[in-house]
Amino acid sequence: MENFVVAIDGPAGSGKSTIAKIIGKDYGLTYLDTGAMYRMVALYTLKNNISLENKEEIVNALEKIEIDIQGEKFILNGEDVSKEIRTPEVASIVSPVAAIKEVRVKLVELQREISSGKKVILDGRDIGTVVFPKADLKIFLVASPEERAKRRMKDYESKNIKENFEEVLASIKERDHIDSTRKESPLKKAEDAIEIDTSFLNISEVVDKISSLINNRIGR
Question: Which residues are in the Cytidylate kinase domain (predicted)?
Fold first, then answer.
């Protein structure tokens, strides 16, 4: 199984990263969290007080941003920002940052470069439609906004971050709107992607479904 690519797309909180990590370990695939890459760019704008309205400054800042991924560590300009990129502050601005064409071009190139010649599993919003339109397997995960908000709340609670459920739900709905209506690489299901609704499934059940699909592809 060489140059095998599994693309998992879906909205925020649909379970992409959690599922992709497990599948990656089970099948010896290199896991690439593309959402974290966009979060690092968003974090850089926060740290440097760059306004979201100033797209030109964000684009210019790309030359000063160095992204590295070491296992489950996310390195921004030499600093481990694995925890910082998961805060509500970053989550609230990542979609507008990711909607900027130049940001997407830079990170898509990096995603392809990192994945070149490897067996990989990537999750994001445009993996199956833009990054790897010829991926060996494309999955599109969905879940109701309410269920995704509950998951996000549990995640925040595990990190001792206090958030209001209604605000988290509103943020998720806003991200859905921005991601699905943006001009550059909008969130959408690839025509040949297999949709899985995770609203009423636990992690093991989703992993089993995707594992079965992978096994069919590789002839197990």
Answer: 6-215
Q: For the segment 33-88, what is each residue's pLDDT rounded down to a tens digit?
A: 999 999 999 999 999 999 999 999 999 999 999 999 888 899 999 999 999 999 99
Write the DSSP symbol of residue 208: H
Q: Cα-flanking dihedrals φ and ψ of residue 21, to 5°?
A: -60, -45
Please check if 13 is assigned to a binding site. Answer: yes
28 is in an annotated binding site: no
144 annotated ligand-binding residue:
no
What is the residue type of 188?
K
The verdict on whether residue 11 carries a ligand-binding annotation is yes
Tokens of 181: 């209506």
Instruction: Give the tens place of pLDDT for each residue, 172-196.
Output: 999 999 999 998 889 999 999 999 9
All domains in the chain, ordered by first residue: 4-210 (3.40.50.300)
d(CA 196, CA 186) in angstroms, rounded, equals 19
- Amino acid 150 reads K
* 128 assigned ligand-binding residue: no
Quote the CA–CA distance of 103 and 97 in Å, as a whole number: 7
* Annotated binding-site residue? 17: yes
β-pairing verdict for 5-9 and 120-124? parallel
Burial class (CB in 10 A: 0-12, 13-18, 19+), 108: buried
| pTM of the model as a whole | 0.86
Residues paired with residue 153 on neighbouring β-strands, in sequence order: none
Give the CA angle between residues 73, 53, 187 to the nearest 5°. Answer: 55
Task: State yes or no: 143 annotated in a binding site.
Answer: no
- Within 10 A of 9 (CB to CB), how many other CB atoms are there? 29
